Amino acid sequence: MKKYICMLLILCLSVLSxxxxxxxxxxxxxxxxxxxxxxxxxxxxxxxxKASVEVFAKIKELDALWTINSPGGxxxxxxxxAGLGYVELKPETITILNEARKISDLSSGAAFDITVAPxxxxxxxxxxHPRLPADNVVKQLVSLVNYKDIIIDQATxxxxxxxxxxxxxxxxxxxxxxGDIVTDIYKKNGITSAVANLxxxxxxxxxxxxxxxxxxxxxxxxxxTSDIVGVVEVTxxxxxxxxxYQRYFIEDGKRYCHIIDPRTGYxxxxxxxxxxxxxxxSADADGLAKAIVLGLDxxxxxxxxxxxxxxxxxxxxxxxxxxxxxxxxFRLEDAxxxxxxxxxxx
Length: 346
Fold this sequence. Notes:
Elements: E1 4-8, E2 13-18, E3 28-34, E4 37-44, H1 48-66, H2 74-80, E5 87-88, H3 91-106, H4 117-123, H5 135-142, E6 150-153, E7 158-161, H6 174-188, E8 193-198, E9 201-205, E10 214-219, E11 228-234, E12 238-243, E13 248-251, E14 254-257, E15 272-279, H7 282-288, H8 296-306, E16 309-315, E17 319-322, E18 330-332, E19 340-342
Parallel strand pairs: 17-19
Antiparallel strand pairs: 1-2, 2-10, 3-4, 4-8, 5-7, 6-7, 8-9, 9-12, 10-11, 11-18, 12-15, 13-14, 15-16, 16-17
Helix pairs in contact: 1-6, 3-7, 6-7
């Protein structure tokens, strides 16, 4: 029987690694809380401890800079200044704002738009008080959603939101962007083998110490116990999932998930339960995972047009589609026997 060590990802994934072999190097394992979730690291090498500490310090620095859930920081500064002109920000904030605009351009804002924040706040999904806002409120807030209204002055490290009431929320890209920084820190410290789990966003550096690929479990979107439906093998990649199961509430028998369609202002109803993106860039993978908004066909088209990523789509009728590049890397492992693997989704 094959054995795996399962490192459970809080939101959407599990990292599966081969059973321990005492002859192989052992990782420095560490865990901390940041970005509103648990961060796990398994790092191999002489500087593993140093690198792990440096990673946590950087994550907490950027978390404070970019959160909208507590006072202070660059994003709150930008939001508070909406409609009032430019405000000076840290260079790293300008960089992630530019990255967000680049990813939004891939779908013209239909799948991913960080100015959806007023709608996210209005719905309150994932907070202690989720609610169903009135239709007229939703319509008014949709008029504020437009990523092109984020104006950036690179020369002065300044940015502005053009309309009063507009807000930015980096929750849809921050963990992805930080994932790329994590791998850069590993490389700077001479690390060649590591895996980090940023609350559901996985980044792996190199292969496992025995030379085999990392095995990442894809969560069953309707499992109450975080069971998996399949395993994908990756080396030097980010694996990011967006799913309708991660945060949601039910009212009058209808399920409302936390992913808001920026075009309608309402939680998605696209026929997809989850989208997993595998890419070299963690930031791009995070943004592309919002293809869940578009549905299967348009989501597949978005990934194909990007050209540097693979994807796993799980539909509401429990079919699993993968892009061609994953056909020899994805394996169905569905204990529930409820899912059908449809090869060659592209």
